[in-house]
Amino acid sequence: xxxxxxxxxxxxxxxxxxxxxxxxxxxxxxxxxxxxxxxxxxxxxxxxxxxxxxxxxxxxxxxxxxxxxxxxxxxxxxxxxxxxxxxxxxxxxxxxxxxxxxxxxxxxxxxxxxxxxxxxxxxxxxxxxxxxxxxxxxxxxxxxxxxxxxxxxxxxxxxxxxxxxxxxxxxxxxxxxxxxxxxxxxxxxxxxxxxxxxxxxxxxxxxxxxxxxxxxxxxxxxxxxxxxxxxxxxxxxxxxxxxxxxxxxxxxxxxxxxxxxxxxxxxxxxxxxxxxxxxxxxxxxxxxxxxxxxxxxxxxxxxxxxxxxxxxxxxxxxxxxxxxxxxxxxxxxxxxxxxxxxxxxxxxxxxxxxxxxxxxxxxx
Length: 364
Description:
alpha+beta
């Protein structure tokens, strides 16, 4: 299979990977032949890239960071929770009757189980990028990225669960804001910005009342907009005053936000987002990201020489840069798999728009 921009899709191309709607349901299934109507509809929904199958790249099978089924179940649960809270804002004062902790423990355990089965956690992190249904998919993406970082740091299972639950629900306070405010297109007034900043406190209040959600998880909602230099909100905390889980969620939140299509700014490629994070060392705690990968066989950290760039970002940074350069020219790069020995230097196969090989496999 290979990754192409939606503008390069043609009628008759076969979809290689399921596409999901905002609520986690399947929008189009793998194996479907694209039509001009499908292509037009996907473009209107903000889908920018898709995977297709063809005879030139049939043997390339990138391993997804989380399976389509796991993603679908997680997004569906987030969608159900968030829409219920949006529709029933009075639920805030009686939220203790819910059992979000147990429900989201199951959701993140599914994500975590899948992550721990991966031989290399650097694989296809850039494939988390999605345009449609941002709010719901964003929570799942943030939890997945946070889980990767937590595993690489050697967190114990109970720590990973607290981090994952907090990451899945970190933006739950947004559901308690006035209808439409956080979806508003256009510049916000200062008064509106102050209202939106309240979502951190509101989310914390929702989660701390849950008997099966730890205060560590709740602090992901309270502190994910705090910054290491004290420039964040709601309390302008700095450095280690911010809980480590919240600092991890902040990194994942910013990365996924940058690589998602938003009305007020351009969508950044993963390598651009990785470079932004690398340059934001004084604002985001980039030192939390180990220069390492995790293998299924050892379940321990193995060092990578990434020349100053943290390992988790190095792989998809290189892959993304290669894809961008190819897609901007007359060439297209297919989906890429890292080499087993050198996972941050994937092998690249080039084909043109006529599906003809341009080069043999080369190292990125």
